[in-house]
Structure formats: structure tokens, C-alpha cells
Amino acid sequence: MDTSLREKSDFSPVRWPNHAYIGRFAPSPTGPLHFGSLITAVASYCEAKSQHGKWLVRIEDTDIPRIYPGSESHILRCLDTFAFEPDAPIIFQKDHLARYEAVIDQLKHCNLVYACQCTRKILGSNAIYAGTCRNLKLDFKHQAIRLKVTDQQICFEDALQGQQCSNLQQDLGDFVLKRRDGIINYQLAVVVDDHLQGVTHVVRGADLLDNTVRQIWLGHCLGYSQIQYMHLPLAMNAQGQKLSKQNLAQALDLSQAPQLLAQAVLALHQEPIEIDQPAIMLKQAVTQWDRSRIPQHQIHLSGIYQ
Ligand code: GLU
């Protein structure tokens, strides 16, 4: 397998001269932003700005059936109200489907992907894909597209969670980049856009930790530069459940923005910031930012977030 493929498409990454840190916040509009999303936004913003880096925003909206009506405009209003100002225009993935198709073509040329006709029914609950369609040479039309993985340990050093390793062949198998219904999978879109936006550092929730080795492998197959990762502990409510869209976490109440911002900073175990206009509060949060204070495992919200 040729795993050192060079850039062959017409899409080239943004260059950020003199900036060693390009961070980003990449919410999916599958529900309104909640307090857990705010913690991620604050941490990614403060990490980038405290290192004199740039901070970008990308709306991850390729999975059209899962888009929750109104959540995109809620995300944009939140960014505005909390004074998160990205350093480049916001990218909406659904406007860039051609770039993902171009990357799939690159991978096809190098024989790194194949068409898969297995339905969910055939696969059952088996979490590890056995490579059933790998050598069938099926036509790509109307089939899922899977990326080949190899039997090797891939490791990375997470800035908060320490060393993480996985053998993709043994733990997961070849994985889907494009679904049968034509939807571009998150794994593909995230890797391509982080590369094209010139992202160097990703700060996001630990619920995405498992995806990271897949993304590193795909980036490696495409010859992209390696990104640094920091996975934040998940925020747990008083009942011990993680705050998530699936658990119907409450949407951020924009009339409480300063209070919520102050609470998000506390949830990350930072020095408290004074209640003021969000732009002023964010500046203080950046000045006081100390990554070594972030808890590694869980953020307990009882007593912080009411
Ligand atoms: N779009 C993903 C989400 O909202 C986050 C992706 C990422 O940060 O890599 O859960």
C-alpha cells in the first residue's frame, strides 16, 4: 500500500506565516450548543490565544439527516454573544463537498480505499469490520467507501490524556469514509479541513479520543502534517451523566452569557474571572490561562453549573 501519498488535488492548505499555533472549534449543528460545548470553545480559544495563535471556527454539517433545525443559527448567535471572534471566515463543510470527493479520488488512485456493499444488517453488532469486501473490487457507485488500515500500533501523545495507542486492524478494521447514501463521514471531512485550514492543534472533548488514531492514519495516508491533540475531560452533571446532545443537555441561555462564561472558566479549574462584557472576560481568561490546571478525567458540574 502506498501510504506516503503527496498532495495531488487542486486544493492547497492555508499558510499562516509566523504562526506556530492554529487552533479551531468545530461544532456540528446536531443540536444547540450546551455547557459542555462552551467548555470546549473556551479551552480551544484560550489555548490558541495564550500562545499567540489563531483560532478558527468550522461548522461540521455534512451529515444532513442529523442536522437539528435552528441549531446552526444558535451556534452562530452563541459565538457572537460570547464574543468568540474567529481569525478567518467561518467554514461550513456542506459548501465544500467537492474537496472531499477530490480526496476520495486521490485515495482511489493509490488503492487505499474500496467499495463496500455490507449493510448494517449484514454487519450486525460486530464492531470490528472483517474486510469482507476488501478484495471484491466492487464498483464505487452507490456503495460505501472504506479506507484500508494496517496491522500496526499507532500511537500519539495527547497533551492532557498522555500516550494513546491503537492497532486499527485489530480494534476497528477498515473504516467508512463515505456512506452508501453519499454522506461524507465525519472522519474524512475533519481530517481534510484541519489540513486545508492549516490547523496545528486540536482541543476537543474526550468523547472524540477514540476517533483520533483513525484521523492520524488517514492524515498519514494523505501525506498531511501531524496535528497535536488535547482531549478535554467530559463534563458530568449532578446525576453523573455526561452533558451531551444525546442526553438533551440544556441549550446555552444567551441571556446568561457572562455568568456561563465565568462558570466555564471555573469548570476548567482556572482562576475565576470577573463578570463583565464577554469580550473583556475572555481577555482575562486568556491572560490567566494555565493549561496545567485543567482536570484530566472528569469535570463535575454540581456546584458550578445550575
Ligand atoms: N463536530 C464534532 C462535534 O461537534 C467535533 C469535531 C472535532 O472537534 O474534531 O462533536
UniProtKB/TrEMBL annotation:
Which residue intervals define the domain Glutamyl/glutaminyl-tRNA synthetase class Ib catalytic in the entry? 24-255
Task: Name the coenzymes or cofactors required.
Answer: Zn(2+)
Per the record, what is one GO cellular component?
Answer: cytosol
Give GO terms: molecular function aspect only: ATP binding; glutamate-tRNA ligase activity; zinc ion binding
User: According to the UniProt record, what class of enzyme is this?
Assistant: ligase
Chain location of the short sequence motif 'HIGH' region per the record:
27-37
What InterPro entries does UniProt report for this protein, alphabetically? Glu-Q_tRNA(Asp)_Synthase (IPR022380), Glu/Gln-tRNA-synth (IPR000924), Glu/Gln-tRNA-synth_Ib_cat-dom (IPR020058), GluQ/Sye (IPR049940), Rossmann-like_a/b/a_fold (IPR014729)
What is the cofactor note? Binds 1 zinc ion per subunit.
Q: What is its EC number?
A: 6.1.1.-
Binding of L-glutamate occurs at: 24-28, 60, 186, 204
Q: Where is this motif: 'KMSKS' region?
A: 242-246
Q: Which NCBIfam families match?
A: PRK05710.1-3 (NF004314), queuosine_YadB (TIGR03838)
Q: What family does the entry list? A: Belongs to the class-I aminoacyl-tRNA synthetase family. GluQ subfamily.
Q: What does this protein do?
A: Catalyzes the tRNA-independent activation of glutamate in presence of ATP and the subsequent transfer of glutamate onto a tRNA(Asp). Glutamate is transferred on the 2-amino-5-(4,5-dihydroxy-2-cyclopenten-1-yl) moiety of the queuosine in the wobble position of the QUC anticodon.
- Recorded protein name is Glutamyl-Q tRNA(Asp) synthetase
Protein species of origin: Acinetobacter qingfengensis
- Name of the coding gene: gluQ
